[in-house]
Design brief:
The protein has 377 residues and is an alpha/beta fold. It has a single domain, classed as ANL, N-terminal domain (Rossmann fold). Helix content is 27%, strand content 22%. It contains 9 helices and 17 strands. Strands 1, 4, 5, 6, 7, 8, 10, 11, 12, 13, 14, 15 and 16 form a 13-stranded mixed sheet that branches. Strands 2-3 form a two-stranded antiparallel sheet. Strand 7, helix 8 and strand 8 form a beta-alpha-beta unit. Helix 1 packs across helix 6 and helix 7 crosses helix 8. The protein is globular and about 65 Å long.
Length: 377
C-alpha cells in the first residue's frame, strides 16, 4: 500500500486526474461506491480509499458535493425537520449543486437534535441502505440516549476502521478489547466477526461502559489485550484504577481514545505519564456522536486527517465564512450517506484549525482540533 508506518518516509504517489470509476450496487450512494456483501465491501473499499486519499482535493470535493446533493434532496422531501427549513432553497438536487448552494443552507445546532430528534428521522429511508441501527451515545446531555443510522453506515465505519489499522500498521492477529456504550441488557460479548469485519483477526472482547471500573479492570487483566479502545472518560477512569491496583496490563501496546468531537477533552497528565512509563502508545480518533468517524490520526504523526468519504466538514469564522489555513474556526459537519437521519450543516460547537498540505502526501484535509479541557488534573 502507499501508506507507511509511523516515522517512515511516505511512498511517492503519482498525481491523479480522476478517481477510477466503479459501479455501486447500493442505489442512492455513489461516494464511495459500495458492494452489497459487507465483508467484501470493507476490504474492497480500501482500494478506493487509497486513490481518494492521494487524489487532488478538488476531486474529493466534487464527489462529496454530488453525494451531498442526494442527501439534501431526500431530506427536503422526507425528513420533517428539513421540509420547511429547505423550502427557500430550491434546486439543491440538481447537478449544479456546489459550494455556493451549500453555503446558503441554514446551519443547525446541537440543541436541534435534543429537541427535534423524532422529526429528524426520515419517513421513507431507502430500503437498500440496510436495517435501522441504534448508536448509543452520552455526548448529548438532556437529549436522546441514541441516534440512528442505516446499515450501510456501519459498513463504511468498518472500512474506515480498517483504514486506520492499516495506516498504523497494527497487528491484526492480536487480542483486542473494546469498551462501548451498549444496551443495558448487554454487559459483555465476544465478537464472532473479530475486531475488523472482512479480516482474520485475533480474539475480540466488547464490554459495556456501564460496568463498574473494578469489573472493567478485572476483565482487562484477565483478557490481557494488545489493543484497547474506549471513550476517553472510561480510559481515564480505568487508568486511574490501574495506577493503584496490584496487577498491571502485561500485553497492552496501545490505548485508543474514541472521542465525540462535540465535546473534546484531553487525557490527564497522570494518565499520559502512566502510559509512557509502561511504553504504551495513546492515539485518538474523533467521531460525530458515534455515528461516523470524522478524523483519524495521520500515520506519520502530523495531525488529524478528515475522513472525506463519510462527511463534509467546513471550518467557519464568526461570520460563517470559510477560514483560511492556520486560522481557527467552528467545525460544521454534513453527513453524506445517512438518509435515515441526515445531519446537514451541524455546528458542533468545536473549534479546529486547517493545517494546509500534510507532509505525509495525503490530500485528506489536515486539521488540529482544539481541546476544551483535560478530563481531570
Amino acid at each position: 500500500m502507499a501508506s507507511g508506518g509511523r516515522g517512515q518516509t511516505p511512498v511517492p504517489v503519482p498525481s491523479m486526474e480522476r478517481v477510477i470509476e466503479f459501479r455501486s450496487t447500493i442505489p442512492g450512494i455513489s461516494w464511495p461506491l459500495l458492494s452489497a456483501d459487507r465483508h467484501a465491501a470493507v476490504v474492497a473499499l480500501q482500494h478506493q480509499f487509497e486513490q481518494i486519499e492521494f487524489c487532488d482535493r478538488s476531486i474529493q470535493v466534487e464527489h462529496q458535493l454530488h453525494q451531498m446533493a442526494r442527501v439534501v434532496d431526500h431530506a427536503a422531501q422526507w425528513v420533517p425537520f428539513y421540509v420547511d427549513r429547505l423550502k427557500p432553497y430550491p434546486g439543491v438536487s440538481t447537478d449544479s449543486f456546489g459550494l455556493e448552494q451549500l453555503e446558503k443552507l441554514p446551519i443547525m445546532q446541537a440543541g436541534d437534535i435534543r429537541t427535534s430528534f423524532a422529526q429528524m428521522v426520515s419517513r421513507k429511508p431507502p430500503r437498500d441502505h440496510g436495517s435501522v441501527e441504534k448508536v448509543y451515545t452520552r455526548s448529548l446531555p438532556g437529549g436522546p440516549s441514541y441516534l440512528v443510522r442505516p446499515g450501510v453506515n456501519s459498513l463504511l465505519e468498518n472500512a474506515i476502521k480498517l483504514r486506520d489499522n492499516l495506516w498504523q500498521c497494527r497487528d491484526l492477529s492480536a487480542r483486542h478489547l473494546s469498551i462501548r456504550h451498549l444496551p443495558k441488557s448487554v454487559s459483555e460479548k465476544f465478537d464472532d466477526d473479530g475486531w475488523l469485519p472482512g479480516c482474520e483477526t485475533g480474539p475480540a472482547l466488547v464490554l459495556n461502559t456501564a460496568l463498574s471500573v473494578d469489573r472493567l479492570y478485572s476483565r482487562l487483566i484477565e483478557f490481557d489485550p494488545v489493543y484497547l479502545e474506549a471513550p476517553l472518560a472510561t480510559i481515564e477512569e480505568l487508568l486511574a484504577f490501574c495506577r493503584t491496583a496490584r496487577h498491571k496490563p502485561r500485553a497492552l501496546k496501545e490505548v485508543r481514545s474514541l472521542s465525540s468531537i462535540s465535546n473534546i477533552e484531553e487525557l490527564s497528565g497522570g494518565a499520559h505519564s502512566y502510559l509512557r512509563n509502561l511504553n504504551i502508545e495513546h492515539s485518538v480518533s474523533y467521531s460525530l456522536h458515534g455515528l461516523v468517524t470524522l478524523t483519524l490520526p495521520c500515520p506519520e504523526g502530523y495531525g488529524h486527517h478528515l475522513q472525506v468519504e463519510t462527511a463534509y466538514c467546513e471550518l467557519l469564522d464568526d461570520e460563517d465564512a470559510p477560514c483560511g489555513e492556520h486560522i481557527s474556526g467552528r467545525l460544521v459537519v454534513t453527513t453524506l450517506q445517512n438518509f435515515l437521519m441526515p445531519l446537514i450543516r451541524l455546528d458542533l460547537g468545536t473549534r479546529a484549525t486547517p493545517m494546509g498540505a500534510c507532509r505525509c502526501g495525503r490530500t485528506l484535509p489536515l486539521i488540529r482540533v482544539e481541546h476544551n479541557k483535560a478530563v481531570c488534573q
